[in-house]
Amino acid sequence: MNPQPAACVRGLKFWLMRLNLNNLAANFWPKPPYTHTFAYNTLRTMRMKSHYLLLATLATAVACTRTDQVRSNPERVIDRDSASTDVAIAADTAALATAAPTATPTAATAGASGKSTLNPAVVEAAANLTVALNRDAQRLSEVRATGNTDHDFAAMMAEHALGAVDLARVELRDGKNPELRRMAEQIITERPAQAERLSVTAKRLAGAKANYNTLDATDPYKARLIGVMRIMKQPLVSSEKIDVDFARLLRIHTQSGIALTNAVIAHGRDAEVKKLAQRLTTEQTASLAQIDTWLQRNER
């Protein structure tokens, strides 16, 4: 324990008081939509300040209780299953910045003064990326399964394509790497049209005969769909670098897409759907190789 507990208590009280005052001001600020940029920027500043103050409070607690321990690995696992997906989907950008799993500092990231060295913008971006993937997983799980492999693939893959757009938007807003930004721009340009085509295919197959059991986890196709969701639930190991975190989550997203297309290639019966799935598999495999190459060069 810290040899000066009274000083620790005073430090914690100081940061908590500032945090409460800032949150109180933010709560009384007019709510969106805003007609003036000033109002939006002011609220954003207050919420970002709340995030920083929360980090400072947690860092002070860490400094008080763990002065004799320093962790050598600064990476932290962001567990997307630790918070309700429904809550994450409903959260707005400001709420994402205060997500506890991404904001918790370790002794390695806290300075001797007790203040966190984490960049709030980086933490917020990591939270935004994580929630974007959570949102995609939630949309896939909410697709109304008819029991027809081809219809259900088309409906799920349409949502999956839009999920990539959500991730890409975060990268374009917060990322800096030119190669990843070009990749994000390509996703935003191409995926909406892909999603539309898949939606049209799903409508065409809306009355198709069921050929798998949507409630039986041992059914070969259903088991593959469960595998897709398991891939998307992988936790993000945050690098505290926006571009690296984007690449890691895009890799998870792409892996799940390949698993989904392989499922319908193996069990689908519609020739047009299987042809489309084969093309998507080829494209996504190439994208995965590009992501892996980038990560090998930039991850460390």
Describe this structure in words.
The structure is a single chain. The protein has 300 residues and is mainly α. It folds into two domains: 5-118, no CATH class; 123-298, Ferritin, core subunit, four-helix bundle (Ferritin, Up-down Bundle). The chain contains eleven helices and two strands, in the order ααβαααααααβαα. The two termini are 34 Å apart. This is DUF305 domain-containing protein. It comes from Solirubrum puertoriconensis. Pfam families: DUF305. Residues 124-198, 243-297 form the DUF305 domain.
Which helices and strands, and how do they pair?
Layout: H1 5-28, H2 37-65, E1 76-78, H3 85-90, H4 93-96, H5 100-103, H6 120-142, H7 149-174, H8 178-204, H9 220-232, E2 236-238, H10 242-267, H11 271-298
What features would you highlight for this structure?
300 residues; mainly alpha; Ferritin; 2% strand; DUF305_CopM-like; DUF305 domain-containing protein; Ferritin-like
